[in-house]
Amino acid sequence: MESNLVRNFPGSRRMSDVPVCELTAKGRSVSFRVDYSGFPNDPLAELEKENKFVAELGPARGTYDEFNGTVHFGIPCPTAEGPDNTLFLNVGASKARDADAAGMAKLAELTGYAARTLAQNVYKCKGADELPEGPVHIRRGEGSR
Q: Which helix (H) or strand (E) holds 74?
């Protein structure tokens, strides 16, 4: 396995604007990107209306991009200064491209684990205990009609 990118990822000494980690092995890749933002997350109804796939995990929500095999996910992470702050997590896997069912299932499991770990243990988001165990639920939105 080879680690290609590590930019200001929790525990890393290398700095960048956005924490990124990409791992590759035998032609397959998995990548993570984390961005902490003061912008609120889009309402679920809006995501469903505009996207082919939506992703949910308790109060967290986002989309799945079938062409890139990536879940783009917003996790509520309020602070005293920013009650609507969101932790944005992007998790991609080459095996999950083109809506491959087995790849999507593994990506959903990995995204759920990463969302809980980052929100609860790394960024210590208020309300992170509301993120349920298990995978992110990926389903079709209205944007596919």
A: strand 70-76
Integer angstrom CA distances of residue 35 from 69, 93, 113, 132: 19, 18, 17, 21
**Given CA atoms 108, 69, 138, 38 in this order, what sign does their dihedral have?**
positive
Cα angle: 72, vertex 125, 6; to 5 degrees:
55
Question: What is the tens place of the pLDDT at every residue in 32-55?
Answer: 778 766 555 677 788 888 889 999
How far is the C-alpha of 18 from the C-alpha of 57, rounded, in Å? 23
Closest CA to 70 of 98, 52, 91: 91
State the pLDDT confidence band at 13, using cuts at 50, 70 and 90: very low
Closest CA to 115 of 55, 54, 70, 73: 73
Contact 79, 87 (CB under 8 A): no
How many Å apart are CA 103 and CA 92, to the nearest integer?
10
What does the angle CA 67 – CA 27 – CA 64 come to, to the nearest 5 degrees? Answer: 25
DSSP 83: T
